[in-house]
TrEMBL record:
SMART domains recorded: tRNA_SAD (SM00863)
GO MF: ATP binding; catalytic activity, acting on a protein; metal ion binding; threonine-tRNA ligase activity; transferase activity; tRNA binding
An example Gene Ontology CC term for this record: cytoplasm
Annotated TGS domain residues: 1-63
Transmembrane feature ranges: none
Swiss-Prot/TrEMBL GO biological process terms: threonyl-tRNA aminoacylation
Lineage, top ranks: Bacteria, Bacillati, Bacillota, Bacilli, Lactobacillales
Originating organism: Companilactobacillus futsaii
Subunit structure: Homodimer.
Protein name: Threonine--tRNA ligase
Subcellular location: Cytoplasm
A Pfam family matched in the record: TGS
Chain's gene name: thrS
Family: Belongs to the class-II aminoacyl-tRNA synthetase family.
Amino acid sequence: MSKIKLTFPDDSVKEFDEGTTTLDVAKSISTSLGKKAVAGKINDVLVDLERPLKQDGKIEIISAEDKEDAQKVLRNTAALVFSAAAKSFKKDLHFGEKHTNDDGFFVDTDSADGQISVDELPKITALMNKIIKDNDKIERSMMDKKELVEMFKDDPYKSSLINAIDSVQIPVYKLDDFVDFGYDAVLANLKALKHFELLSVAGAYWQGKSSNPMLQRIYGTAFYKEDGLKADLKRRAEIKERDHRTIGRDLDLFFVDPEVGAGLPYWMPNGATIRRVIERYIIDKEVAWGYQHVYTPILMNLNAYKTSGHWEHYREDMFPPMDMGDGEMLELRPMNCPSHIQIYSHHNRSYRDLPLRIAELGMMHRYEKSGALSGLQRVREMTLNDGHTFVALDQIQEEFKRTLQLMVEVYKDFDITDYTFRLSYRDPANTEKYFDDDEMWNRSQSMLKAAMDDLGLKYYEAEGEAAFYGPKLDVQTKTALGNEETLSTIQLDFMQPEKFQLTYVGADGEDHRPVMIHRGIVSTMERFIAYLIEIYKGAFPTWLAPTQVRIIPVNNKLHADYANEVLSELRAKNIRAELDDRDEKMGYKIRDAQTMKIPYTVVIGDEESKNATVSVRKYGEDDSASENAKMFVSSVVADIANYSRKDVTDKADKD
């Protein structure tokens, strides 16, 4: 019998008979490893435990303790068992794409007899448990592609997936009468599949294209141990509680309707108020720090983006150009930098003008694939808090530090503390993505690193995360969904000034090339507000809250005059206050104010009207306190002026 040589992680090499399995190899090492093994990894590719091995290669024995790979095998198995159970539940069910990752698994389904609803998941779970209890063995075999096409001829999605496979023989898995394919490895039997959960359903376009049919995506997860599942479900409950899409709906902040435009948010009055406050804040802050705010068009001649390099490097993320019929091609801008370059080049510049700081709340459009769109975090239309500073070479490090100081000050006002700094460099091997100028890259990367070291800030370095035109400092944070997001960025750019032939007259009377610093302090309005919704859980600090005070008269007829008097005093101080004079019970009105997470609920009855006081209940507190009306107005003014920072508020209370 032919032999194969297998190389183990410790670089030892052993010979085995051709056709031996990973399970055989594991048992040859120890009985306990044979019992723990769930799959193999041959030349870095996951394989089933009982798959015959026919070639030399590197081998790893994957046990349940090998978290990432073992979880994938378990979740592959859970997806297979779900599919078998769902097919028995709905006989006409068709299956689209499926996927497993570190967050669980999903399977896309379709049915002419009605999609699977969330209410039906417990019934499918029960069918899965029956399959597992029967301990059905999963059989793996190879099937001719033509035979498989014939088997799935009535399922348009499976047929398409089979035809996309470039192989004559395709591995299939059989569970009772159910047959499926497209898994890299599954468990040999179902004993380990005990702790799983079907989580939710959602719509998903077939293969992520909005022109394709909408399928039903079923999400689930699975763990080897009960503790793992419990911890994950607890984490998911916290995520759900913070999910900006859910909170945005409940507080009536925004909505996105695919029927009128996927990835195009509509801001309701409450959400528009939050956005307006942030926009006014950041404009005032930037003006105070020496920025000149401008407005520039959202359309630009395509040639500008060809000059900048965006058309070459970013074309897939740009909308198609608009042919104006006279030879002019206009493009919805994906970036604001070429627009601000036009502002710079509109006048002759001198060294005395530098640093020249230009800023804008600039609307941009990017063609995000429909499958990537998510609430406010992934959209197709966005407004970036954008800024570009044009500096001389000897001003780079000082301006970089200054920009970072502004960024940290803004974070303090928003009470943002959980973030890390990432220096994003180019990948020298990726000559297609990155502008080819070694001297420029080495120089600019060393400048950023020196500035961070000089400030004594901790950071980590990431190769391949730079923009195509220069390195950058990214401020990284995590969303409630566990995804890492870039909250702010500062980028050095030697390339754009060169491409657009920007100059300034130096002290020596000669022309010199400026350097461009791109920066976004609070990202896009959309992404930043999504982030704030999640970190605040929708309970915005007073200065940001859409409604800061809600006044509730105990009796609309008896207490309306005084309630309106208090309302007028609040509004005279630019406090966003409203009067709840609905014909509803007091308890309902108070609960509604708490549900809407309004910072201050004020109740006015006989005592308050008589003594010029108000009964104040802060959001999240059970008790109310009586306060002098004028002093209450002053305290709210102070709360707003201090950006509702707890450290400042606590100090003021003590004073």
